[in-house]
Amino acid sequence: MSDHRTRFLQLALDADALRFGEFTLKSGRVSPYFFNAGRFDSGARLAGLAACYADAVDAARLQFDVVFGPAYKGIPLATALACEYAGRGRDLPLAFNRKEAKDHGEGGTLVGAPLAGRRVLVVDDVITAGTAIREALGIIAAAGGTVAGIVVALDRQEIASEQDRRSAAQAVAAEAGVPVVAVAGLADLLAFAAGNDTLAAYHAPLLAYRARYGCD
Ligand code: OMP
Fold this sequence. Notes:
- α1 packs antiparallel against α2.
- It contains seven helices and eight strands.
- It is an alpha/beta fold.
- The structure holds orotidine-5'-monophosphate (OMP).
- Residues 25-27, 34-36, 73, 125-132, 168 line the site of orotidine-5'-monophosphate.
């Protein structure tokens, strides 16, 4: 497993962002694990996470001009990633959206750098069925931007439905014609759990969940 994957999974465990038990997802599926990016709740934690995102983006050789964080969870993630790139000598424009349109002041739902005519990297927390990411793609298209890639911390690698056995990441990548890059996926989590004594008890439930909902 590449270094940024292991580093990310260890950071997520340490921050309690990765939890094990019984969690009902947005899709209604009951999962033995849950990733809560909101637990990256300090400057140091976000900086560590952003370095993992940047390593994954660089490894995938994505070409882009601006980073975009979908509200709400994508906003600190995209911001931290832009700061990480500044530390690496690249000053990237940054934008995000509001969930509620503003009808006074500057108005609108987009904040930050303009997207029109630019190649946009979408930065989000997790992809399960792809609903949140598809929404972000619509916002970028409406603003005249071109999506150049999508990066998430965790790809849960789950089938969209029994009929479509691709993962949401695979389906979105095919629809949008751009790479969907994850710092780590369920397969990495399984490998990580197998080699970690404190996670040994969760390995079997994770395997059972993958057998039921994992993509081909
Ligand atoms: P999709 O829109 O189905 O891709 O799911 C992404 C969203 O699910 C995230 O933005 C979260 O609201 C939520 N989620 C997590 O945050 N962590 C998980 O491990 C799983 C989910 C989920 O509900 O699928």
